[in-house]
Specification:
Structural class: alpha/beta
Strand order of the largest sheet: 7-8-6-5-9-10-11
Number of domains: 2
Order of helices and strands: HEHEHHEHEHEHEHEEHEHEHEHHH
CATH topology of the largest domain: Rossmann fold
Radius of gyration: 22 Å
Number of strands: 11
CATH superfamily of the largest domain: Glycogen Phosphorylase B
Oligomer: single chain
Number of helices: 14
Strand content: 15-25%
Shape: elongated
CATH architecture of the largest domain: 3-Layer(aba) Sandwich
Low-confidence stretches: none
Largest sheet: 7 strands, parallel
Mean pLDDT: 94
Length: 310
């Protein structure tokens, strides 16, 4: 650490989310480097653990000149851990400020043409153990929506064979994206087992279940869905985005589900009640819009810590 600092002589040190590395923090500050905790996020379990070690937590947080949090709850947690209130600022999750996912226009047109006017819902970034729940929900939904198409995009495309087997076991017909197939009128599940095409699926449909959340996996980025104009369904295990989902659920931009039955009910509501879906999507777009001014504020705060003579 000392050799690194002596050679590079950094003007600013930025640590992201919950990266609290004591040796690095202490030595960098001792070398005169202003430090920032950016996009700060701490799980409730971590907060309680740090509060039990109040003197250590206060010492580490005192190394930072500025702490910019993802939300007001994290700001309150940092203060409870001993952070100087004057150095804590509540902000937003920087992931909400990123550009929308890329969409290949030609591929989107091809898939949209193949789907036609069929109703669609998306299950994205699913993990092992979740597809069974998704497929059970889809079978239930087909009773009232016989032409419904499920667009299933597993988190790891190399699981394509395993997921295809699950679809067959569920008695559903499928087409696989990795085999250059497009959904046909009788296709019940379109298995999107490819990389880099999630933006296409979000552009195609605004009803999205995000995987990694039915089990304690941590969840995945809901902002990518909302940037494409969609609304989100999540399981209870999305702890990496717990604070964001709490707000999204409160304003109606997202819903939490716990089983195949509740998943089918939530998707069914958005299928049969266009107003309910429009309301959820409107709330999601409003949430994203409210984050738009945070990037300029963040950049200005960081620039304010840099030497002014350079």
């Amino acid at each position: 650490m000392d050799r690194f600092l002596d050679h590079w002589r950094p003007d600013l040190g930025i640590f992201v989310e919950s990266e609290l590395w004591p040796n690095m923090l202490v030595r960098a500050r001792r070398a005169g480097v202003p430090l920032v905790l950016l996009n700060a996020r701490l799980s409730p379990k971590s907060v309680q653990s740090w509060i039990k070690r109040h003197h250590t937590a206060r010492f580490l947080l005192d190394q930072f000149a500025l702490m910019l949090t993802q939300n007001a709850q994290t700001a309150d947690n940092l203060r409870a851990m001993g952070a100087d209130p004057q150095r804590v600022q509540s902000g937003s999750n920087l992931k909400a400020l990123s550009d929308p996912l890329p969409v290949d226009a030609e591929s989107l047109v091809q898939v949209r043409r193949a789907v036609g006017d069929r109703p669609v819902w998306v299950a994205s970034s699913t993990h092992a153990g979740e597809e069974e729940t998704v497929l059970a929900a889809h079978k239930a939904l087909l009773a009232d929506h016989p032409h419904l198409l499920l667009l299933l995009a597993p988190r790891h495309p190399d699981r394509g064979d395993a997921v295809e087997a699950l679809i067959a076991e569920a008695g559903l017909s499928a087409a696989r994206r990795s085999r250059a197939a497009l959904p046909e009128p009788t296709t019940q599940v379109y298995l999107a087992d490819t990389l880099g095409e999630v933006g296409i699926w979000y552009a195609l449909c605004s009803r999205v279940f995000l995987g990694g959340s039915l089990a304690e996996i941590g969840g995945h980025n809901p902002f990518e869905v909302m940037q494409a104009g969609g609304a989100v369904l999540t399981g209870p295990g999305a702890y990496n985005f717990a604070e964001s989902f709490a707000e999204l659920i409160e304003i109606g931009a997202a819903k939490e589900i716990t089983s195949a039955e509740t998943l089918a009910a939530a998707v069914g509501t958005w299928l049969s009640d266009p107003h309910a879906l429009d309301t959820a999507c409107t709330q999601a777009r409003g949430f994203i819009a409210r984050q738009s001014d945070q990037m300029d504020k963040t950049v200005a705060a960081l620039l304010g810590l840099l030497p002014q003579d350079r």
